């Protein structure tokens, strides 16, 4: 692994530099996409009306995840168009799995309306009244809802 005098060889040095560059790039890419995702969801929440927020959030989430699911399918289609190659694409199952997960996530997001609307549904007066009520009254309210 080391050369005769204890120093790294040129190829080992390049490999270590490339490894650090890979980790740094992946970290920056992850932070950037996370910030963009949360900023977009925040803007949707602030710019849409209260009754339209769940639908807008679900549309955004569906578009975001379907894009991730369709990417490998498009890559497989482009690979199939390559007439010079004799190998078959191997990431077609990954694309189908991503697309299936995207559809499941869309269904789950459309059913979780109360998570998106929860801050708007609980105002201070309702929270205070629920806190001061007797446990039996709270239990009956939960059964009614």
Automatic annotation (TrEMBL):
Q: Where are the transmembrane segments?
A: 13-39, 60-78, 90-109
What InterPro entries is this protein classified in?
MFS_trans_sf
Q: Give the keywords, sorted.
A: Membrane, Transmembrane, Transmembrane helix
Q: Which residues form the signal peptide?
A: none
Record protein name field: Major facilitator superfamily (MFS) profile domain-containing protein
Q: What is the lineage of its organism?
A: Eukaryota, Sar, Alveolata, Dinophyceae, Gonyaulacales
């Amino acid at each position: 692994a080391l050369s005769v005098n204890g120093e790294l060889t040129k190829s080992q040095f390049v490999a270590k530099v490339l490894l650090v560059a890979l980790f740094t790039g992946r970290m920056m890419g992850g932070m950037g996409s996370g910030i963009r995702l949360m900023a977009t969801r925040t803007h949707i929440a602030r710019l849409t009306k209260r009754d339209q927020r769940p639908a807008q959030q679900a549309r955004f989430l569906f578009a975001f995840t379907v894009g991730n699911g369709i990417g490998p399918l498009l890559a497989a289609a482009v690979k199939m168009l390559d007439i010079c190659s004799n190998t078959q694409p191997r990431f077609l199952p990954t694309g189908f799995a991503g697309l299936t997960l995207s559809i499941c996530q869309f269904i789950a997001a459309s059913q979780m309306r109360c998570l998106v609307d929860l801050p708007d549904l609980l105002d201070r007066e309702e929270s205070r009244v629920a806190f001061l009520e007797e446990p039996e009254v709270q239990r009956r309210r939960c059964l009614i809802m």
